[in-house]
Amino acid sequence: MDYAIIAAGEGSRLVQEGMKTPKPLIRLHGVPLIDRLIHIFLKHHATSISIIVNEEMTEVQTHLKALSLPVPFHLLVQSTLSSMHSFHALSRFLTGDRFCLTTVDTIFQEDEFTRYIRTFKQESTLDGLMAVTNFVDDEKPLYVKTDNEGRIHAFLDTADRTCHFVSGGIYCLRKTALPVLEQAMKQGISRMRNYQRLLVSEGLHLKAYPFDKIIDVDHISDLAKAEMFLS
């Protein structure tokens, strides 16, 4: 299965707080965020790994260009308008039937990720299996509305009484999701949350996969929380 990482954001909140290290190279327990994801993906039988970083992140570019991986590795240097545009730029490398996409600052327990990937590979009728959590750690969470079987019916900016989960920023998708991405680009849509809404409105079969906890690294204070979570 192909794996892809969006690492093209500026990490503006971290920079404002005085962080000098680019977000992909911030270390948790001594390991850069980007390296942690690469290692996990390789352990989960990646057939390729693709990463997009922005043009200003020269330190990250140098770090990634020095890597030697046992699978095809695609490094794309491109500044984009949004995470959805970054996904679209990466999509040229996602040539298999299934792929997993994540942002660089998404922190999760590896054993939960293992079960998530296994479940996605076993599901033959799904177009997508989206990681969700009831642990709300984001400043602007995307709420996920599901039925009793876990099928996703809506992505909401504001929770209603039937929403039990928020998006975790990990997306397992089939190639059937890529034509909808092209459609989103043609319609001038931006942001991953709006792309996900289009997946629902186009009738794709999406399910939610609950993780106990997923943490985003947006602030310096998140680093201690993330290290404690992974201890």
TrEMBL record:
This protein's record includes keyword Cell membrane: no
UniProt KW keywords: Nucleotidyltransferase, Transferase
Source organism of this protein record: Tannerella forsythia (Bacteroides forsythus)
GO molecular function, one term: nucleotidyltransferase activity
Nucleotidyl transferase domain span: 5-230
A family per Pfam: NTP_transferase
Entries under InterPro entries matching the protein: GlmU-like, NTP_transferase_dom, Nucleotide-diphossugar_trans
Name of the protein in question: NDP-sugar synthase
Domain of life: Bacteria
